[in-house]
Each structure stands twice: as structure tokens, then as C-alpha cells.
């Protein structure tokens, strides 16, 4: 695979145009601030300043800034730790779906009050709905999906944005700051990546809980992942660039007309595992980008064929569980076709 071809593909198909990106960001930020300010004024538990998460704010977005993800911090008024009750509950969880089989709903004990996810979801969505239905906003914000997803999704159409629409996800998050448990398998003994300083930074942040499932709170490593990505190319390496190229190629690997069983979140975890397997900056120079792309492809194939892609921060979670094996098998075949004839995909 040719580095020149990959770099050209990156410039032509992956890299976002700075002016277009700036235009969309400048439109979205005050809009989100206004909505969250309205929500906060009516319920002080929801903080105005959101956490900027998602691929755009980690510089992993491809092509166009048309999706923005925010975690809206819910002031729970208490710190969290791994109590015996938490141990019982957490050990029955799987990422995005924990607790589904054993508990009808999960509650947080916050002082003398019980915080149920359903109540938080209902309250937050009602307030966001009120905010976007104000005359100055409702003409260009479509909130029809408010009742369909735990994350409140807004679709924005406006003459001042680039592209047809912008999607904004707002998801309530509890900053639990829970410590990593030994059974999560992170950090790994003997691993040379990330650095000790980065590990300590991530451990200080801890684990939070977010509304990722229609009915339950789930463990969230979103801020751990963000901190891991921050500064990842400080020495001029190509880790993010490699990830963005793989994300763009995913659009061609996934069969048309089928459910997208391979997601960008899978690929983010592939990046993390590749970084741990190849921890040195010298392995991630721009001259090695074709080597890293090929290596990440084979790593992805390996995990799909095994039917197990461990979550980087919690190896007990299989991100491929309950995925359609036939569809993923087609993805593997398309990756092999890419490796055999990359020119067909890159030119």
C-alpha cells in the first residue's frame, strides 16, 4: 500500500474543510448554550456547561462537521464508589446494555433521594423540548426524535450551516468518578502505552455513568477515552490520521442496505489496541501510515473472526456481542478486497 495514495485520499476524502467546519461550529455552540441555559434555569441539577465528547471534539471526525455530541452533567450531589450493591449491579452489565436482564430499572441513592433514570430522561427531554419549541428556535430545529432515544437528538436545518443538516446529541451524564476495578483489566501490567502520566490522569478522572440505553444508566468511559486521545499526536505522529482514514474506509466496507454492525466506536477501540501493541512514536510517523493502516485492518479482521472485540478500558465487555455475524463476515471480505486492491478504494 502506497503512503502517497493514502495521503491523497486523506486530503481529498477525509480531512474537513476548515472554513466549513468553523461555520458549523459557530452556529451550533450558541444554540446548544441557549438550550442548556433554558434547561438549567428550570432545573438547576442540569449544568449549563456540557462536556464536549464525540469524534469532532477529539479530532476524529471525517469529511464534515455535521454531528456534535454533548454530555450534559447532572449534579447528583454526591460522590460514588464501588459499594457491594454497585459490585452486584456492575458485574451483571455489558456496555450499553448492562442490567437489562436482571433489573427493571436502576436507581442511584443520592442522599435521601432516589434518582431513577426514567425520571431524569423524562424531565430532561421535556425541558429540551420546551427550549427548542420557542419561536426563535423551532423554525430550524427538528425535535421530532425526542421520544425515540435516551440521548435527545436535535436535527438542525439553517441557511447558515454547511450541508443539509446538523445532528446534535445531548445525553445526561452523572460524574461518578468511580475508580477502575481490577477485573476491568486496565491499566495492563507491562504495557508501554499509554504513559504513566496519562494513566494517572485517566484514573483521576474515573468512570462516569451516562444514558446510553433506553431504560438504564450505563458505565461511561467517554471522558477516559477523550483524555486518552488528547495529546496522542503531540510529537507529530499519525495516530488520529490513521484512525480517520479507517473510519472513512468503513463506509465502503459496510454492506449497503444492511444494519451498520461495524461502528466508529469499534474502530476507536481498534486504535487504542493498536497503540498499545505498537507503543512507540517511531512506529507512528507519517512514513509508517500504510504499515499502521494494514496492521489495524488485520487486527480488526482478527477480532471479527474471533467474535470478540474487548472494550479497551474493560476487557470483560465484548463490543461484538449480539452483532450479526453474517454482516460482519461481509465486512471482513470487503476489508480483504481492500488489502488486495487498495487502489480501487483510494482513487
From TrEMBL:
Q: Is the keyword Nucleotidyltransferase assigned to this protein?
A: yes
Check the record and name the SMART domains matching this protein.
Answer: Mab-21
Q: Which GO terms describe its molecular function?
A: ATP binding; metal ion binding; nucleotidyltransferase activity
Signal peptide limits: none
Carries keyword Cell wall biogenesis/degradation?
no
Name it: Uncharacterized protein
- Which cofactors is this protein said to need? Mg(2+)
Q: Which family does it belong to?
A: Belongs to the mab-21 family.
Tell me which Pfam families the record gives: Mab-21 (PF03281), Mab-21_C (PF20266)
- Where the record annotates domain Mab-21-like nucleotidyltransferase, the positions are 56-230
Residue span, Mab-21-like HhH/H2TH-like domain: 238-335
Amino acid at each position: 500500500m502506497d503512503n502517497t495514495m493514502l495521503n491523497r485520499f486523506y486530503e481529498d476524502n477525509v480531512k474537513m474543510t476548515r472554513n466549513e467546519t468553523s461555520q458549523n461550529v459557530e452556529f451550533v455552540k450558541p444554540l446548544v448554550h441557549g438550550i442548556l441555559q433554558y434547561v438549567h434555569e428550570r432545573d438547576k441539577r442540569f449544568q449549563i456547561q456540557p462536556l464536549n465528547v464525540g469524534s469532532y471534539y477529539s479530532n476524529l471526525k471525517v469529511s464534515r462537521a455535521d454531528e456534535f455530541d454533548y454530555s450534559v452533567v447532572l449534579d447528583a450531589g454526591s460522590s460514588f464508589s464501588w459499594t457491594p450493591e454497585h459490585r452486584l449491579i456492575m458485574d451483571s452489565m455489558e456496555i450499553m446494555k448492562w442490567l437489562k436482564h436482571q433489573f427493571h430499572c436502576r436507581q442511584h441513592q443520592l442522599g435521601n433521594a432516589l434518582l431513577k433514570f426514567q425520571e431524569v430522561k423524562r424531565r430532561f427531554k421535556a425541558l429540551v423540548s420546551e427550549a427548542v419549541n420557542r419561536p426563535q428556535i423551532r423554525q430550524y430545529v427538528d425535535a421530532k426524535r425526542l421520544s425515540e432515544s435516551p440521548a435527545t437528538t436535535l436535527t438542525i436545518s439553517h441557511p447558515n450551516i454547511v450541508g443539509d443538516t446538523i445532528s446534535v446529541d445531548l445525553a445526561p451524564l452523572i460524574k461518578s468518578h468511580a475508580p477502575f476495578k481490577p477485573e476491568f483489566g486496565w491499566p495492563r501490567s507491562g504495557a508501554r502505552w499509554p504513559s504513566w502520566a496519562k494513566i494517572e490522569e485517566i484514573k483521576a478522572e474515573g468512570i462516569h455513568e451516562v444514558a446510553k440505553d433506553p431504560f438504564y444508566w450505563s458505565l461511561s468511559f467517554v471522558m477516559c477515552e477523550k483524555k486518552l486521545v488528547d495529546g496522542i499526536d503531540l510529537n507529530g505522529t499519525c495516530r488520529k490520521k490513521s484512525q480517520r482514514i479507517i473510519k472513512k474506509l468503513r463506509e465502503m466496507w459496510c454492506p449497503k442496505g444492511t444494519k451498520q454492525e461495524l461502528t466508529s466506536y469499534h474502530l476507536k477501540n481498534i486504535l487504542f489496541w493498536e497503540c498499545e501493541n505498537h507503543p512507540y512514536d517511531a512506529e507512528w510517523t507519517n512514513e509508517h501510515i500504510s504499515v499502521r493502516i494494514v496492521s489495524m485492518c488485520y487486527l480488526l479482521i482478527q477480532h471479527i473472526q474471533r467474535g470478540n472485540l474487548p472494550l479497551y478500558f474493560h476487557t470483560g465487555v465484548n463490543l461484538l456481542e449480539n452483532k450479526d455475524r453474517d454482516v460482519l463476515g461481509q465486512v471482513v471480505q470487503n476489508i480483504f478486497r481492500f488489502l488486495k486492491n487498495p487502489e480501487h478504494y483510494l482513487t
